[in-house]
Amino acid sequence: MAYKHLVQYYETDRMKITHHSNYIRFMEEARSDFLRHIGWGYEEFERRGILSPVVHVECDYRKTTTYADVIEVDIIVEEMKGVRLKLGYIMRVWEDVVCEAKSAHCFLDEDGRLMNVKKQLPEFYVELQRHRREALE
Amino acid sequence: MAYKHLVQYYETDRMKITHHSNYIRFMEEARSDFLRHIGWGYEEFERRGILSPVVHVECDYRKTTTYADVIEVDIIVEEMKGVRLKLGYIMRVWEDVVCEAKSAHCFLDEDGRLMNVKKQLPEFYVELQRHRREALE
Amino acid sequence: MAYKHLVQYYETDRMKITHHSNYIRFMEEARSDFLRHIGWGYEEFERRGILSPVVHVECDYRKTTTYADVIEVDIIVEEMKGVRLKLGYIMRVWEDVVCEAKSAHCFLDEDGRLMNVKKQLPEFYVELQRHRREALE
Amino acid sequence: MAYKHLVQYYETDRMKITHHSNYIRFMEEARSDFLRHIGWGYEEFERRGILSPVVHVECDYRKTTTYADVIEVDIIVEEMKGVRLKLGYIMRVWEDVVCEAKSAHCFLDEDGRLMNVKKQLPEFYVELQRHRREALE
To answer: How confident is the prediction for chain B on average, in pLDDT?
Structure first.
């Protein structure tokens, strides 16, 4: 069920490896896929006039990857508390972990105010809880 | 007076050269700089509710470039006729031509209709004429 | 059998459409897929010490696309004559043609010399002929 | 003395802001500029057969930026201990901090072994010490 990204030639650099900045993009691809999967694609947020900026990202690069590698990205809800959603990512090529990452997100209503997800988007909150680390273990 | 782009590491690929797709972006950088220079930056078009999609691009790659090269981009108005603006680009590293390129653009008013630049944006038209190949020779 | 690309959020721009430079990358994705498919992936060229720089690209943008669109790319061999391979691309979303494109490529041996594909890579030449426009019609 | 990056149109996304992945690239631009400045550009490492992969990045996004903003990036050596170099970045538009970031790097010799920078690259180590936070305060 992991999201799969096939590394493209244009994603490599002169060190002959996938450029590190692209993993931030693979995170977005996997997140986009995950949200669509639980019924809350970006389109749904846009339709409601909700913006969801990324407020934090971090990546630990474990092994290099390169052109034609298939990176499998597993995503998990680390925490949904107050106004902030925290996600965790593990990226693998075959069985090797190549990158571990985290991101944090907030949600802004049509007037640009921070939303309390549990109160203002309860159906979304419930979906997120179902994909928390604890729930999956 | 040419626009200068310093090639970044993330713009190279595993062939150890600047990835060819990036030249399309250098064209946009130079175009953006040129339009701002003649008083018609994208901000000005946005302020008037005008969109300007790219309708054509082409690049002939003459020599490879790589990390830390400074690419100088000269831009010229090839033609401004009816609804279409055609631009030409020559990119050089030192004296060597590394890429020759062209792009074409149209302009859409707030209702998404094609604009006749000479009639509807006469001040812009005049500026473009001053940067035509003939005018510069 | 067309190659499919799902447009990502990071591929859009503030005009809310897929940035035009990305189509050059979709061309590479489709080409990479096509070459692998006919048994001549980039890995095969790298293994033989052959480099294959892109010498020309051009795109005609017909309609805009945006986040979450699936772009189908059909690729065809336009010509394989002497040292130059010319490819054609048609990109569609549903039935609409969104972009028509061309690219040209050459092949350099380990000493950086231009290769005559018919003579020096005859098996590759035969595969390419089988995917020429005429052969497919 | 900060490194300056002018945000390009292709760096924005459909939220009309600079896409968050690009800040990782601005970090590389500033780092590349800083290293060149202290006499240790990537070219110098490549010449010695030394590779320097990024092992960690993190970004806290404080405010959004967009097309035509000039982002000033200040870079500082947080720590150079054993095999790991840690850098800190503050990015500002005018006086506003828009992003705070960190990165970590290691150095691999020609045989792919981790290098102890203090012992194996003492001149580089000395330069780094001169740009540590403490030294600058």
So the answer is: 95
